[in-house]
Write a structure and sequence with these properties.
The structure holds 2 protein chains of 2 kinds.
Chain A: H1 21-24, E1 28-37, E2 44-54, E3 59-63, H2 70-77, E4 85-90, E5 93-94, E6 102-105, H3 117-121, H4 123-127, H5 132-145, H6 161-171, E7 179-183, H7 191-208, E8 211-216, H8 219-225, E9 228-233, E10 238-244, H9 259-269
Parallel strand pairs in A: 3-8, 3-9, 6-7, 7-8
Antiparallel strand pairs in A: 1-2, 1-4, 4-5, 9-10
Chain B: H1 10-33, H2 44-56, H3 59-91, H4 93-107, H5 115-122, H6 126-149, H7 154-162, H8 167-204, H9 210-219, H10 223-251, H11 265-268
Classes of the chains: A alpha/beta, B mainly alpha.
Bound molecules: adenosine-5'-triphosphate and magnesium ion.
Transmembrane segments (chain B): 12-29, 36-55, 61-91, 103-124, 130-152, 173-199, 219-240
Pfam families (chain B): BPD_transp_1
Region (Disordered) (chain B): 268-287
Chain lengths: 279, 287
């Protein structure tokens, strides 16, 4: 495993961007995707006419108020639920169920309390029946990368919430997936830990050059992290705007107080009308 | 039980022993103090003498061994059947659909009420006791197994499935370990009920066992003897329960590691021995 070479935290190399923009845009193509939830009671249009392309190595954030279908979109991309209409393409293959090259991070850490930190990180290896010995050093490197080396043999109950979430994130990376799907991974953390985790995630992404779809309630978090921000509105869940964020990398927390940053935040917030919908 | 370990200081231990002495003293004096005749409430010393005689003569040992054998055999039989059927119900929805009406019917029936029939069918030997104990041990095990296996956290299931895992892997990696707290609680309930079932059946008719011994002492108005057997039964129950608690601490080692894991509200909250929520799938288990 070579991809951790430059990842000794201090000198994260800038991530290699694909040169050919037209073809790279096509790593993931979401076409006319719609999703209904029904059964008994009224039918809910969770997603309608969703069109989105995601490039290889791109960091895309999705923001929108509660119930606009963000998690539904993520669960579709993870292959956990089918669509009612439309298609999702991964490269030139239709998405038809869970894939082996995706890592999912949930809002809660979703650790197994009877497994140590290391064994939790190795869950993807166990599930996919890969050779544990081959991935052991990679797992250790990843745990080290988020500063948890000393806790390798501890159990989740012995970790703080932020530490648990970090375990959940590096677990999603251990089988070297092409893509990370993250559903409000920092939603349960306090503001300070959250900012710290944002910086750490950016670093991790720059070192690992993964494609990331990152769902959040927080507009500033989305602007801070993403190359592009997808703004969604509810009932029915649709994409209202896709915004390119032209802020230089590596981004710092100080940047959040600069005028361009504030402008992006204002522009996204405008979609949600009166104050108090989000953040 | 609330956590009382912080109160376990040397001073409190001494107070606790003094309290015991006080209780024993009041008990000893009660025939005189409250004018209670000895054939209703024997004095503490009479009970102690009865206990001593029974233990040294080997009488309690023999009958205790018979009772213990019946309890353990019934517990093992009913417990393992309950576990097996619980797994089957949790895994196979079709099977669950057809068997649930019977489960609910039996569940609401006081199962020890079948003991007289079992004595009639299987006689005065150990069989009728084992069958009763197995029957009462069966239900809590089955119901706790079902609730446990269906308790697995949804996000954890999704995690395994999102990695391309199979239902089988979900079972072995997640459902079964998630069910262990429920299963351990079920074992403790089943053990307690097995003891009750065994003793009640011995009351009804037996050629050996502590229940039968107690019944015959009652007929001979040997109330002190009856009390001493009650003490023996309490000790047997305590030892059996303690053994299971030790096993539970071993098996569920992660439950004693500190704070509750945020993603696991359902399966970390049932550390208590007789976890009532483990019964929630069906009406509460009664003896
Ligand atoms: N399994 C389901 N069955 C029925 N309705 C569902 C289901 N999952 C989601 N929905 C509905 O679909 C809509 C979108 O839900 P979704 O969870 O995707 O929203 P969300 O944007 O992730 O919200 P939040 O920010 O609160 O997590 C909601 O109206 C929800 O009620
Ligand atoms: Mg959601």
């Amino acid at each position: 495993m070579t991809l951790l070479k430059g990842a000794s935290a201090a000198e994260a190399s800038p991530k290699p961007r694909p040169l050919d923009a037209s073809s790279s845009r096509e790593f993931i193509r979401i076409r006319e995707v719609g999703k209904l939830f029904g059964g008994r009671g009224p039918v809910v249009t969770a997603l309608q006419d969703i069109n989105l392309d995601i490039a290889l190595g791109e960091f895309v954030a999705v923001v929108g108020p509660s119930g606009c279908g963000k998690s539904t979109l993520l669960r579709i991309l993870a292959g956990l639920i089918p669509t009612n209409s439309g298609t999702v393409w991964f490269g030139d293959r239709k998405l038809e169920g869970p894939r082996h090259d995706i890592g999912v991070v949930f809002q809660s850490p979703v650790l197994f309390p009877w497994r140590t930190v290391l064994d939790n990180v190795l869950i993807p290896i166990d599930v996919q029946k890969l050779d544990r010995k081959k991935y052991l050093s990679r797992a250790r490197d990843l745990i080290n990368l988020v500063g948890l080396s000393e806790f390798e043999q501890r159990y989740p109950a012995e970790l703080s919430g932020g530490m648990q979430q970090r375990v959940g994130i590096v677990r999603a990376l251990v089988h070297d997936p092409a893509m990370l799907l993250m559903d409000e991974p920092f939603g349960a953390l306090d503001a300070m830990t959250r900012e710290h985790m944002n910086v750490e995630l950016q670093r991790l992404w720059m070192a690992q050059s993964k494609t990331i779809l990152f769902i959040t309630h927080s507009i500033s978090e989305a602007v801070f992290l993403a190359d592009r921000v997808v703004v969604m509105t509810p009932r029915p869940g649709r994409i209202a705007e896709v915004l390119d964020i032209d802020l230089p990398r590596e981004r710092t927390l100080d940047m959040m107080t600069t005028p361009p940053f504030g402008e992006y935040v204002r522009r996204i917030r405008a979609h949600f009308g009166t104050a108090g919908v989000m953040d | 039980m609330p956590d009382l370990s912080s109160l376990d200081t040397p001073k409190n231990r001494i107070l606790s022993i003094l309290l015991l002495c006080l209780v024993l003293a009041i008990w000893q004096a009660s025939p005189v103090l409250f004018k209670i005749p000895a054939f209703i409430l024997p004095s503490a010393s009479a009970v102690a003498i009865g206990l001593w005689r029974g233990l040294t003569s080997g009488l309690y040992l023999y009958h205790g061994a018979v009772t213990l054998f019946e309890v353990l055999a019934g517990f093992a039989l009913g417990g393992s059947l309950g576990l097996a059927l619980g797994v089957a119900v949790a895994l196979n929805r079709r099977f669950a659909y057809f068997i649930y009406p019977y489960i609910i019917m039996f569940q609401s029936m006081p199962k020890v009420a079948l003991a007289p029939l079992f004595v009639l069918w299987f006689g005065l030997g150990v069989t009728s006791k084992i069958v009763t104990a197995a029957l009462v041990a069966f239900f809590p095990m089955m119901i706790n197994t079902i609730s446990g296996l269906t308790s697995a956290d949804k996000d954890r299931i999704d995690l395994i499935l999102s990695l391309g895992g199979s239902e089988r892997q979900v079972f072995t990696m997640l459902r079964f370990p998630s069910a262990l707290p429920f299963i351990m609680a079920g074992l403790e309930i089943s053990m307690a009920l097995s003891l009750i079932g065994t003793v009640v059946t011995e009351f009804l008719g037996a050629d050996a066992g502590l229940g039968m011994l107690m019944q015959s002492m009652n007929f001979m108005m040997d109330v002190a003897g009856s009390f001493s057997i009650l003490i023996v039964l309490a000790v047997v129950g305590l030892v059996l329960n303690h053994a299971l608690v030790m096993i539970r601490h071993r098996v569920l080692f992660w439950e004693r590691l500190g704070r509750v894991d945020s993603g696991a509200a359902a399966d970390t909250s049932i550390a208590e021995p007789t976890a009532p929520q483990a019964d929630s799938a069906l009406p509460a288990q009664q003896k």
